[in-house]
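Good morning N.,

You mentioned wanting to compare the apo and holo forms, so I went ahead and generated the holo version with NAI. This is what I fed in:
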Amino acid sequence: MKTAFFSTKRYDEQSFEKVNADYHHELTFFEPRLMLETATLASGFPAVCTFINDDLSAGTLRAIAAAGTQLIALRCAGFNNVDLNIAQELGIKVVRVPAYSPYAVAEHAVGLIMALNRKLYRAYNRVRDDNFSLEGLIGFDLYGKTVGVVGTGKIGQCFAQIMKGFGCKILAYDIRPNPVCLEIGVNYVELPELLKQSDIISLHCPLLPSTHHLINADSLQHFKPGAMLINTSRGGLINTKAVIHAIKSGQVGYFGIDVYEHEDSLFFEDLSDTVIQDDTFQLLQSFSNVVITAHQAFFTKEALQNIAETTLSNISDIDAGRECSNEIKAT
Ligand code: NAI
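and this is what came out, ligand included:
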């Protein structure tokens, strides 16, 4: 199927071209993000393949539908950037990659915990500077600590399993408890209770209208003073300004994020020659107990391979008029 890829980097092109040897779709790679202003690039392509920060709101959808697009193949799990109701109304099918490596994301969340707890980023810079002092580097044992997992789907489950291995007590909050988590001894509680008891809180639920700013000024009040907050899910789960306030007051003692609510104007680009205009982000960066990575939790060789495999297989299914189990519909 003739497919226009948006928001592409060299690594996307490489992994998709390699896997496409088995699928024989006609792939064209565009660097720009898909949005209303770039929608004309999709002209003549029955399928577009997009990523997390492409704008698939009503305006863009109408423009690509008018230009002949009938399929959106998301090469990611989250679909919060797609107006599914409008897509359905326009007859555009939407498919996604529900799982490509839950391990990649869960392991990155653990990486953020380790970096923050043992201050690896500070230690690395110190040693490079021949400063071998340990002042300010003290951490805590993970063993015996309480970890709160918000959302125990594929990634939350992997994360809970890893943290169990550290000897942590695991609490979880989910609207649908996961039997595997129950089996390994995860204790499901209501969200305020989880926030109250946890030394480390890690977010793994999707961004939905109901979860937008799940962590806000009110919920932050439930936190154990000095708790660690980790977000590898979606930036919009957190009201960043409220967290900054909580970091300044000491209510949040560590903050590790791979996602940021206004990341679409920052992440995936080299902006090192520009002046960043986002004051909230810059303020966040100035704290010594904050570690930010730029949406790289998914970024492993295995995940890229799986993303390409599933996306191209999804496109083949739709192209052939087959039922696609990865199709998402408006509810
Ligand atoms: P999943 O669909 O397997 O699990 C999500 C879980 O969240 C489900 O158990 C669901 O019941 C639960 N949930 C839904 N609404 C909830 C609510 N209101 N409160 C608490 N729990 C709720 O999804 P998966 O694969 O585990 O991914 C989780 C999220 O991770 C995705 O939505 C995506 O936003 C993010 N993600 C981030 C990546 C990164 O590179 N940083 C890569 C892949 C996914």
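The chain has two domains: 2-100+300-328, 102-292.

Happy to go through it together on a call whenever suits you.

Best,
F.
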